[in-house]
From TrEMBL:
<protein>
    <submittedName>
        <fullName>Uncharacterized protein</fullName>
    </submittedName>
</protein>
<feature type="transmembrane region" description="Helical">
    <location>
        <begin position="19"/>
        <end position="36"/>
    </location>
</feature>
<dbReference type="InterPro" id="IPR022791">
    <property type="entry name" value="L-PG_synthase/AglD"/>
</dbReference>
<keyword id="KW-1133">Transmembrane helix</keyword>
<keyword id="KW-0472">Membrane</keyword>
<dbReference type="GO" id="GO:0005886">
    <property type="term" value="C:plasma membrane"/>
</dbReference>
<feature type="transmembrane region" description="Helical">
    <location>
        <begin position="100"/>
        <end position="120"/>
    </location>
</feature>
<dbReference type="Pfam" id="PF03706">
    <property type="entry name" value="LPG_synthase_TM"/>
</dbReference>
<feature type="transmembrane region" description="Helical">
    <location>
        <begin position="322"/>
        <end position="344"/>
    </location>
</feature>
<feature type="transmembrane region" description="Helical">
    <location>
        <begin position="163"/>
        <end position="184"/>
    </location>
</feature>
<feature type="transmembrane region" description="Helical">
    <location>
        <begin position="57"/>
        <end position="80"/>
    </location>
</feature>
<keyword id="KW-0812">Transmembrane</keyword>
<feature type="transmembrane region" description="Helical">
    <location>
        <begin position="132"/>
        <end position="157"/>
    </location>
</feature>
<feature type="transmembrane region" description="Helical">
    <location>
        <begin position="295"/>
        <end position="316"/>
    </location>
</feature>
<keyword id="KW-1003">Cell membrane</keyword>
Length: 359
């Protein structure tokens, strides 16, 4: 059996050695490209289809993709600022695009992305509680908007989607958003609850009555530095909504680029509508959340095509729109994210990264 001390030394070496931190992700990317090479022909197909696509639609799709990432970066900047950690738009945008590349490149990528984001935010001076608070609140608000967008598409199209599942998700995300917002503004209430509940919990676990109470209270009072007014929360929610709308508009622009016609509110032969795009976008994001393969390769494209056909497009146009959408929103943004990662993050101290991105 390998000694635990030896394992700890190896992990410490990986975490502190600059070259290992730089080469590690690169090796993983090479392995993934080889492992999933059968799923990559869509890149060449996408480039071929771009040659015959409407240039205006393609340009708008590219712009919308990065505006979506900038909107999410603003959510990060505002929430961190509410907790006393200041970061420039350049810093949060760089981190958002780089962490997006982690999320889309690996099976289970969102978990790796969250860890990477946490370490960079800690390098900016954010507390552990503030990093966790940002992750929970931003995710809850973003999911809430996704459900609302899907509900709108479902309602206007009369699609057969489980109303109760959407409603339960919407209520749960709205309640979670409110709870996290309330907790940040009422740490004294939470302290009283901790002091009342934890002794009983410790007794059930056969631990000393006051075990962990003061530590929990100390961590909790980090909320004293968080000042998120209703107005600022509304601004954060607005940027989160823009993140979703720009992302959905990317798919809209790709349909426009492939068909040569911008979808409107009224249906036409072999064309979808704005609400059809919103429904396709929602189902795509839900399908991609499992992410068994990097970026949901294979699964996401199939869902986009099936949904676009179901809402009125031909199979040929739906396939073209799906391929172009994935080429821009997945492949292009991921490549840009990895370039930013290797230029500003790989193998460097997080404080150095913050300074360089801000310069």
């Amino acid at each position: 059996m390998v000694p635990a001390s030896w394992v700890a030394d190896v992990l410490r070496l990986v975490a502190t050695n600059r070259w290992i931190r730089w080469l590690g992700p690169l090796v993983v990317l090479i392995i993934l490209v080889v492992a999933f090479r059968d799923q990559l022909p869509f890149l060449g197909d996408g480039v071929r289809r771009l040659r015959h696509a409407e240039p205006t639609g393609v340009l708008l799709a590219v712009i919308a993709t990065f505006l979506s990432l900038f909107a999410m970066a603003e959510v990060m900047r505002l929430l961190l600022e509410a907790g006393g950690t200041r970061a420039s738009p350049a810093q949060t945008t760089g981190l958002t695009i780089a962490s997006n590349s982690w999320s889309t490149s690996l099976p289970g990528g969102p978990a790796f992305s969250a860890v990477f984001t946490y370490h960079v935010q800690r390098g900016w001076g954010a507390s552990r509680l503030l990093c966790g608070w940002f992750l929970v609140l931003s995710s809850a608000v973003s999911t809430m908007w996704l459900v609302l967008i899907g509900a709108a598409g479902m309602f206007f199209l009369g699609a057969r989607v489980s109303v109760w599942s959407l409603l339960v998700t919407l209520v749960a995300m709205a309640a979670l958003s409110w709870a996290v917002y309330w907790a940040a503004n009422h740490p004294a209430h939470l302290e009283r609850w901790i002091r009342a509940v934890m002794p009983s919990l410790n007794r059930m676990l056969r631990r000393p009555r006051d075990a962990g109470v003061e530590s929990a209270v100390t961590q909790l009072h980090q909320f004293d530095t968080v000042h998120l007014s209703r107005g600022r929360f509304a601004v954060v929610a607005g940027w989160s909504l823009l993140n979703r709308l720009f992302d959905a508009f990317t798919l809209y622009a790709c349909v426009w680029a492939v068909t040569g016609t911008a979808p409107g509110l009224e249906s036409a032969p072999d064309q979808t509508t704005l609400m059809g795009i919103l429904l396709a976008y929602t189902t795509t994001k839900l399908a991609g959340s499992a992410q068994v393969t990097p970026g949901g390769l294979g699964t996401v494209e199939a869902v986009i095509i099936a949904t676009l056909v179901a809402v009125g497009m031909t199979a040929v146009d739906a396939t073209g729109a799906a391929v172009v959408y994935r080429l821009i929103s997945f492949a292009l943004s991921t490549v840009v994210g990895w370039v930013i990662y290797f230029l500003f993050y790989a193998g460097r101290d997080t404080r150095e990264r913050a300074i360089e991105l801000d310069s």
